[in-house]
User: Fold these one by one.
Assistant:
Number 1:
Amino acid sequence: MPDTVSAQPEARASKTLRDTWRALSLYEKFEQAVVLVLTGVIAVIILSALWNLILRVALSLILADVFDPTDPVVFQTVFGAIFTVIIALEFKRSILVVAERRFGVVQVRAVILIAMLAIVRKLIILDLSKTEPGIVLALAAAILALGAVYWLVREQDRRDREAGLVE
């Protein structure tokens, strides 16, 4: 009896998924297929980046005994790799939002956050002693501009929610 009860929610979910799929237009089905393929590709990239990070840290700790987190080069390398994984995870999550049909297109807010993460990653791995001041200024201006755009988008979303235009 417990097997039948536990199977019922799965059967209902499967039926709802089939009904939702049938209701999609041809282009929406194509969009969903592309999103699923992209999700798979990004998952492989995330696993590869994570594996590379684990190997790099493990080999540095065990074999070379040169892993000194206080060394700026080691810090920049390791945290640059960590941010790469985080950026890929955030990118995958923004695509999954589309796959779940919560929104028709990738949200601007998610793209802005991913861009901000990428710039922060660049600032972490940057060797400031060898970087021209113009580059640092450009990265700072980009972060400032992205922050302003993020704030504007968030404010517009808040106003739309208050007006009852979106859920």
Number 2:
Amino acid sequence: MTKTAWTRKDLVGLKDLSREEITLILDTAKSLQEVSTRPVKKVPTLRGRTVANMFFEPSTRTRISFELAEKRLSADTINFSAATSSTVKGESIKDTVRNIESLKVDIIVMRHPASGAPHRLAERLDVSFINAGDGINEHPTQALLDMFTIKEKKGTLEGVKVTFIGDILHSRVARSNIWGLTKMGAKVVVCGPKTLIPPKVEELGVEVIYDLYDAIKDADVINLLRIQMERQSECFFPSIREYANTYQINRKVLEVAKKDVVIMHPGPVNRGIEVSSDVMDGPSSVILDQVTNGLAVRMAVLYLLSGARKKIEG
């Protein structure tokens, strides 16, 4: 395991993390992975610590994964519902969070539709923050679990070619993955309609390929991204049907890909749009492995932040 020590109070993105810090998280997740295979799936690591899950957007995998990770580490957990909170009465997010912080909560896991919301709060408050997705900016733990899964399946991240297909423009998952994978030595390709490729994305160290077949023919990993209709105020392509005809990964398309290509998706999956059912449920798909690995990765992040807090408090 890497000898790098974790010293950060928060995990709000991968943009500012070093290769060594990312390696530390992945190594820690590997060591915690076996906890979920025990007859008693619990360790006392975070006993006496309190974690508040504050989700201002809908979530299934991320919210449940964090809550279960907290319970596996024996933390006390508070689940915050934006729909029934004082924010609907006009209270600011900062005041809401400060009130929760005043209850001596140690860590806040936050998902928010405004890009940068966890970052700004983390700078102003003493409580530790974990970004569970902010607007179209970043989703660090999803990228970490994606990298963990790739390393598990391919043995390394160095030199691995990862192609992202879909709505790159609105994808916080793509952004975090780009920051993380390029630092770890992977080759990243993005593919999708020109209207859904961010301007100057090449400056982040990725290659842009608009033709689907060219984008996947040498890929070791294909990571599919959902068309995020809820984040789009404009029409970026004629129709969902046309998008599926051009960019869907199905068995015919995969004939040009490597035989051992790995198919990934952060979820939720729109079957029949970005991927066909036979591919999603086929031997190349590791989508459910991603969900499983997300638990270990989030346990690792909670564990490392808790240790950093102890040092700060001590």
Number 3:
Amino acid sequence: MRLDADDFTLFGLPRRQRLDRAQLDERWRALQAEVHPDRVAAEGAAAQRAAMQWALRLNEAHRRLKDPLQRAAYLCELAGAPVQASDNTAMPREFLLQQMQWREALEEATDAAAVHALDAQMRQTEAQAMAALEVALDDAGDAPAAAAQVRALMFVHRFRHDIERRLDVLDPDR
């Protein structure tokens, strides 16, 4: 293993969006057991620092790979099409119009039922977008299209948080 290996190589997994979470977690636990700082406690400070670096690197890679959206952004970056969400906010006109409609629907929702209905719609949109993202990354190998899809999904993810906050106000006992 090399500290500078990509996350997939580090875990011995294929570079794919579709990932078996149980396999990832199992591999993470096995690797953590190999590099845990307690295993080298008697070997001195340098060995403990190296073990700590490995443990941190594995935790960082595991955190990134277990989150489908972060994994997709990472795959885009590895393929030479970084998402650049803070620099590149360009979206198709249809998606921008849809965003405005969703925002208006959330602002106009006066009861929890309306917000729950919007949340159900957003969950369906998110599931469809994730499926399209898997196809773009794993089947078509179209990293630029996938990067645009990741940016759209980032909006959907943030908007779902806004929905949750609104539900906390309208339906605090849910």
